[in-house]
Specification:
The chain is α/β, with parallel strands linked by helices. The protein is built from eleven helices and eight strands. It has a single domain, classed as 3-Layer(aba) Sandwich (Rossmann fold).
Length: 250
């Protein structure tokens, strides 16, 4: 069972030589979570916001992402706001807070509740940060993060690296934009020219996609049916051998 096709293509088959069956179970919003929150309505025309808000939610585990967001905040203090939620893991909280302290347009809101707060937090942002560099060249190239599905469900436009499985998913479904090196330069240039018309068109497309693109409506059920349908082999069970130690009496 894999959460992204990249793990099968780039690791299990190419590295381990695995030739068996695989089942793709993506990091989608669960059926229970989807039932607890409602997707937003189609966007209406409107004026450009005072600031484009980029949201980075979930496990904040990527120091390079933090550094890049700080660079973007410094380059565009009047037109971009960075909104961060949940717990930093690869850096201590003190380091994290120190890194963003000099940037008034970076807001850290602490932890949030899933799924209770999803509609509120994604309703506050325009763009979802879907970059990951923690394991560059391996896991970061192959994964599909859950924020991709959460953001898509609520119509947030995703930003990600080109040449990654996440970037491929963005292109496949039209979920957002990918960037190549130099990443910060290209992101800053994009944010300077990004228009409300372009944003609303992209958001409308994302919200037009069926819920199953982002929600696990039947994926887990299909996995259970697959497992239950697998042939079973009888395995002979040997009696448990135990060693009894008698006291020596000495």
């Amino acid at each position: 069972m894999i959460s992204s096709p990249g793990f099968d293509t780039h690791y299990f088959r190419s590295v381990q030589g695995y030739r068996g069956r695989v089942f793709l179970l993506e990091n989608k919003i669960s059926f229970a979570q989807a039932a607890a929150v409602q997707r937003p309505a189609m966007p209406l025309a409107g004026a450009a916001p005072e600031k484009w808000v980029i949201g980075w939610f979930g496990t904040l585990r990527c120091p390079k992402s933090l550094a890049m967001l700080c660079e973007i905040a410094a380059a565009l203090p009047d037109t971009v706001e960075i909104y961060l939620l949940d717990v930093p893991t690869e850096t201590c909280l003190a380091y994290f807070e120190k890194a963003i302290a000099g940037h008034p347009n970076i807001i850290y809101g602490g932890e949030y509740r899933n799924p209770d707060d999803l509609a509120e937090i994604y309703g506050r942002v325009h763009l979802t940060w879907a970059f990951d560099f923690l394991d560059e060249g391996t896991n970061s190239q192959w994964l599909l993060p859950n924020r991709l599905y959460e953001g898509g469900y609520f119509g947030s436009v995703a930003l990600a690296s080109g040449g990654t499985q996440t970037g491929e998913k963005l292109r496949e479904l039209g979920l957002g934009y990918t960037f190549d090196a130099p990443l910060v330069d290209h992101l800053v240039a994009f944010l300077r020219r990004y228009s409300m018309d372009e944003h609303l068109a992209r958001r409308a497309h994302i919200l037009s996609l069926p819920p199953q693109a982002f929600c696990d409506l039947h994926d887990t059920r299909d996995l259970c049916e697959l497992v239950l349908g697998l042939p079973r082999r009888r395995v002979a069970v040997r009696p448990l051998q135990t060693n009894v130690f008698e006291p020596s009496g000495e």
